[in-house]
Amino acid sequence: MSDATSNLDIDRLSALLERFRVRSHLFHAGPLCGVTRFAERPGLGFLHVMRRGEMAVTHRAGSGAPKRIEVREPSLLFYPRPLAHHFHNAPREGADFTCATLEFEGGVHHPLARALPPLVVVPLARAEALQHTLALLFAETEQVRCGQRHLADRLFEVLLLQLLRWLLDHPEEAALPAGLMMGLADPHIARALTAMHEQPGSPWSVQSLAEHAGMSRSAFAATFKAQVGETPGDYLAHWRLTIAQSKLRNGAALKVIANDLGYASASALSRVFAQKVGVSPREWLRGARADAGDSR
User: Is CATH 2.20.25.90 what the domain over 201-291 is classified as, yes or no?
Assistant: First the structure.
């Protein structure tokens, strides 16, 4: 980890997680033996902590994750997007697990969910910052006590946040692809991204964002594209549209959304929306409600 990254004096995650929340739900604590199948469920990821034992993990071909991996030490396995996976444990040497589902607001469109690899595996020995939270989590799941499930759910959310911090500090070790997380791991690009996240309605230009990053305009534009995978203008447009989609799902009027996001009018937002998403806001919302089983 570079000194520049470790000394960042900005909060790179709160603006994202305040707008697009993640809820965790404990569903298993204890040993697993034989083959355990975890089905792909829309909108849900998984966070597994293997406390002891060894296992193999398999995924279907073409899923984006390795077809088979061996986990031979206590590790955390993080699936940010829906992905079916199988754990294979020897019956007489059952590995001990604590597991939770992760409900990402917006599902696969959650900015962090779509910016991460399909699977992140972190040996616990390499992530010392997680140890105190893990100790509390294990203590809560070892015996039934009042409020156990509620507290375990919140501890998993703390664990996820600490894991995201670890990923930002170890982007190469985590094999992060170009995208939001790689951008946030860069000490200069992170400043521009955080500014856009916190003030999406501001009239940002490449020059003003470069000034936030402390870089020349040309160096900023090139570095941003290399780290994030798209231009600053395209990223800002996508960020605004992601917020617009969230607000539409929550019942906000298009005119209000347009004003909040810096568009001159509802029709201006509609034009950008149709151009980037492929359908009008009204058509998109109708489809989103149909997918969610909402007949309004």
Answer: no
